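Exercise 7. Given the encoded structure of a 173-residue chain, write a plausible sequence.
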């Protein structure tokens, strides 16, 4: 069974299998069996079905095992930086004033269009890497900063390549 293993020695397994607010469904002294890349069992180690006992195993030595975060709404593939606009808004500038000075959403659209595939890859790859480092295992990437068919297609192509090149899953919309 390729892609099959059992994690044992889990100190705390967060299952989220509870309908009570704030209850993470924590199982202590747990095991997780993965068969052909899919979770087949998650629960108390003492109740691990015998059919999974002979799978290759990893002892996690009392560590916690938690589900990956699904980031369901990002615009992670874009170029440009509007951090200065945030400071301007804090100082009281209106969006109209920022727009008149060349800022606003259109500055991001322009930077995104000018970046092309390589430029977008260079900013998006580390951005998604930081998201994965923080626990995201699935990242939805929305297009929307190109505002024309060719630029939007480029955004989606970058996201598709990121999906194939990285250990996390990228879903595009």
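Solution.
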């Amino acid at each position: 069974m390729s892609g099959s293993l059992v994690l044992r020695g889990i100190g705390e397994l967060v299952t989220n299998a509870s309908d009570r607010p704030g209850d993470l469904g924590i199982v202590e002294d747990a095991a997780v069996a993965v068969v052909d890349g899919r979770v087949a069992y998650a629960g108390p180690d003492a109740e691990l079905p015998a059919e999974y006992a002979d799978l290759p195993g990893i002892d996690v030595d009392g560590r916690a095992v938690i589900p990956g975060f699904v980031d369901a709404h990002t615009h992670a593939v874009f170029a440009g930086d509007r951090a200065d606009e945030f400071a301007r808004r804090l100082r009281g500038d209106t969006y109209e004033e920022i727009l008149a000075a060349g800022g606003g959403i259109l500055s991001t659209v322009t930077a995104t269009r000018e970046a092309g595939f390589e430029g977008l890859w260079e900013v998006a790859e580390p951005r998604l890497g930081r998201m994965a480092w923080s626990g995201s295992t699935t990242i939805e990437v929305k297009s929307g900063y190109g505002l024309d068919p060719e630029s939007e297609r480029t955004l989606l192509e970058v996201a598709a390549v990121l999906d194939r090149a990285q250990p996390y899953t990228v879903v595009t919309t």
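Remark. DSSP finds four helices and eight strands in the chain. Students should compare their own answers with the one above.
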